[in-house]
Structure formats: structure tokens, C-alpha cells
Amino acid sequence: MNNNLYYYEHQNKLLLSNKKYDFKELSEDFAQNYNGTIFALNSLTPEKSRRSFSVTSDSNLFIQEENLNLLRRNRSSSLPSWLIEKIDNRKVTAVNTNYPNWQELLSKDLPIINGEKSNTKKWSVTVVGLGDVGGTLITGLRLLGGDCISRINIFDKGEDKMKRWEYECNQILSPTPDKEYPPIIPLKEDELFNCDMFIFCVSIGVPQVGKEDFDVRLAQFEGNAKIVSYYSRLARESNFKGIFAVVSDPVDLLCKTAFLESNKDINKNFDFQGLLPEQIRGYGLGVMNARASYYASEKLEYKHYLKEGRAFGPHGEGLIIADSMKNYNEEISDYLTERTKKANLEVRALGFKPYVAPALSSGSLSLIATIKGEWHYSATFLGGVFMGCRNRLLPSGIELETYDYIDDVLFKKLQHTYNSFL
Q1: 114 occurs within a structural domain
Q2: H or E, element range at 206
Q3: Residue range 117-136, pLDDT digits in tens
Q4: Domain identity same for 179 and 194
Q5: Which of 153, 163, 263, 273 could form a disulfide with 126 if both were Cys (CB 3.0 to 4.6 A apart)?
Q6: Which Pfam families match (predicted)?
Q7: Do residues 318 and 331 both lie within one domain?
Q8: pLDDT per residue over 146-174, tens digit each?
């Protein structure tokens, strides 16, 4: 034991804690020479915390609660140097022992494409909902996902849509004969969760062009929530262990609905035997970053956003565009935020539904980045809220992008958005 740390062996894995557990205790010398992932044990309220995440600094090794402070990069010298090196190499996973099934994590291998310890197999993905967004999204996956996707399963209540997209997308082919394209394969409903990633693109209640006089995304919530609840419960019944990706609007609220509804038993009591919070991810922020980049490119004095800027929050009201994480300028940030929030209305004013950029920037490209373990924008669980931010999925769990410094004005705005979703 060192610095009030305890080391244990359980299921042939190394566990780390700052309090006593009833497992076989090990020496620090043994722990220091251990080559695998170390699991740091925490005890947090399941409703407000993930079952696991990648530890990025000693400040989030043993946390009291999940909140926005996890976006701050803090470092002290209280830990042994070998353990800090493990954390820096993303070889430590925080585990919440208050989840009834936490121990199954010890034998789970994430099928991440990149990473030293990753599983190199390609992912099978299932796309449900073949409307404007779903059809465009699978086109992007077919064109760009050959190196990381083994097959694209599709499902829609309309069989004609499934037949159409099976024909259309399987006929997308490069003249280069050795280029790989994942096949498009129609499924039956009882086959939907035989995959590594389930992608929800069903959407009802989308206002007609010219009829939008309020937040278009929120207008879809009631109808889409009923459908995502159905599929999240189906995921629970199927004991689904992959990624449950939500592309339909509003992604943040639908993610939370999927989490809550899948974790209720037949009596509507929470048992936390459904989808884990870290399994569920919302894909709406990628296009907001792309739109902010588009507007930032129009003025020379705003172009620093392309390298220094970040997007946070939801795909709609509450969005925050920060022009720079190094030298935050509130005036520029507010301008980019407002332009970005209203970008979809500009397309609608032209007489078109704005679905192409969202389907590709938030959808195809961000989903592929997730599979490859690359940085991207998505909404991920943080203290009871699905908060949009840059993150990546590693073999050790989800890593949030952290910052040495966050401007006080910016942090207050982030906190306001965060609180509005609690």
C-alpha cells in the first residue's frame, strides 16, 4: 500500500482503490509491474454516473461525483510516478461498483479499431430509419467505412425503403477493384441487435418547410421519444453490449430517454440492468462544429476557430461555440453561436430540409471516428446529462477532451446549459 492506495486481484485483473475491499490484496511492487488495464474502484449513484470511463488525470481517479469539472485538466503529485504514467497512457479505467453488473466489465473487450490493446475486427453496424437522414448516412458509411465496418445492416418499417437502399447503396462502387465497401444487408426486427453499433435514425413529426416557428428539433421530441423507448427496451431484452447511437433529434433528450427507459423493470422500477450510460451516445454536435467552421471561415479574424475553437452542448438551443479555448473572446463566440444555431433555418428558407450536412458531419463521419477511437463530437453521459463535447472511445473507456484552462465566462455558460438538462 502507498498513499492510502490498495491493490487487489479479482478475475485475474488488477483492481485499485482508496478504501478496503474484500478481494485478494497485492503488493505495490506487483501492481507496478502489471501490464494490463488497471481498474480503479469508485462508488457513485448510478443515476448520476457512468459504470466506467477512462481515467485521464489523478483528479478523476477517485471522484465524488460526475460534473463539468471533469472537463478541467488537473494534476498533482500525490500518486506514485508509475501510476501517473499508466494514467497518461490511458491504461486505467474507473469503475462504479454500485452498478449491479460492474464485474462483467473485467472480462469485456471493446472492439475499438485503433489502440495498442484494441480488437482489430471491423464493426457490424445497424441503421434503423431510412428517411432523408438515414439514407444519406448509410451512403456515407458505405463510401467511407470500408476499413472499419464489416457490414451495414438496415431496417425500416417500409419494406420498399429497405429494398431501395439495398439496391442503391450496394451499387456504389469505385472503379478501383481492390477498394473495400461494406455490404448493405436488410434485417428483420428480431435481428437488429446482432451488431456492434445500433444507429437510431427514426424521426417523426418533422415540421414542413415554411411551417417552423419554433425549435424544429424539440418539435420532434415527443414522437421520437416513444420510438427510442421501444428500441432501448428491445436492446435491454437482447442484452445488447454495443454502442446505442442516437442521430434523430433532439439527440441529447433522446439519449436520456433511452437510458432511463431501458433501465426499468416490468414494474417501472429502476434496476440498472439495461443500457449503460456510456453505451449511449448522441450524434448532433458534429454538424454544429462544421457550421461554426463555415461561418468562421468567412472572416479572417474568426478563422482561429478552425484550430482553437470548440463546440459544446446540444444540437440546438443551449449550444455553445467557443471561438478559442486558449484565448476566449465572448463577442466572437456569441456571433458564431447564433449563426450556427440558425443555420438550419437558412437552408429551410431556401425551400429545403437541412439533412445532408447533419447526416454526414454528425452522422457518418462522427460514427466512423467513434469506431476508430478518434476524437469527434458527440453527446456522452456526464453526471445525469448527455453533454455534447469532444471525446473519443478507447479500450479503457470514454475519454473526454480536457483543458488546462477554461475561461470563467465560458464555464458559466457551459454550466447553464448543463443545468438546463438536469
Answers
A1: no
A2: none
A3: 344 589 999 999 999 999 99
A4: yes
A5: 153
A6: Ldh_1_N
A7: yes
A8: 999 999 999 999 999 999 999 999 999 99
